[in-house]
Amino acid sequence: MADSPVVEPNPILAGLACRCPRCGKGKMFAGFLGLKPRCEACGLDYAFIDAGDGPAVFVILFAGFVVVGAALVVETLYAPPLWVHAMLWLPLILLTTLLPLRAIKGVLIALQYHHQAAEGRLQRRGEQ
Ligand SMILES: [Zn+2]
Fold first, then answer.
1. 58 to each of 37, 46, 62, how far by Cα in Å?
2. pLDDT tens digits for 114-127?
3. Ligand 1 center to residue 102 CA distance, Å?
4. Nearest-angstrom CA–CA distance, 115 and 65
5. How far apart are the CA of 6 and the centre of ligand 1, in A?
6. How far apart, in whole angstroms, are the C-alpha atoms of residue 20 and residue 43?
7. 60 alpha carbon to ligand 1 midpoint, in Å?
């Protein structure tokens, strides 16, 4: 990640578009969530990327808020049978988890690159 940015795009927009965080042109993903080894446009090596569980956490929080909130409102207002809940919330769970997952992962990767975030390392005296 020592490479300096070529033309740094807005990290949020580049991430939402799932584009390279350095040039904003090359595609970042190969498949749904798998990453390409490097940018096809500027050659940025994607080995630095470590989104970890971040995208899943944000998706869980978002989907949980939407689905549980909607289920509570429907249950309180209409008290439908359980099969109605299943028919309503299972598709909504799929929509609120699968649709934003890739874009959120792209944003977190772009922000990691933008802020040059990396695993913390201890520095001994005399080292730079
Ligand atoms: Zn690039």
1. 25, 22, 6
2. 998 888 878 787 76
3. 18
4. 29
5. 8
6. 10
7. 29
Q: Tell me the three state secondary structure of residue 75.
A: helix
| C-alpha radius of gyration, the chain, whole number | 20
59 C-alpha vs ligand 1 centroid, how far in Å?
26
Q: Is 102 in contact with 18 (CB distance < 8 Å)?
A: yes
Q: What is the pLDDT of residues 20-78, one digit of tens each?
A: 999 999 999 999 999 999 999 999 999 999 888 999 999 999 999 999 999 999 999 99
Cα torsion 69, 70, 73, 78 to 10°: value is: -150
Q: 35 by DSSP, 3-state: which? A: strand
Distance (Å) from CA 44 to ligand 1 centroid:
6
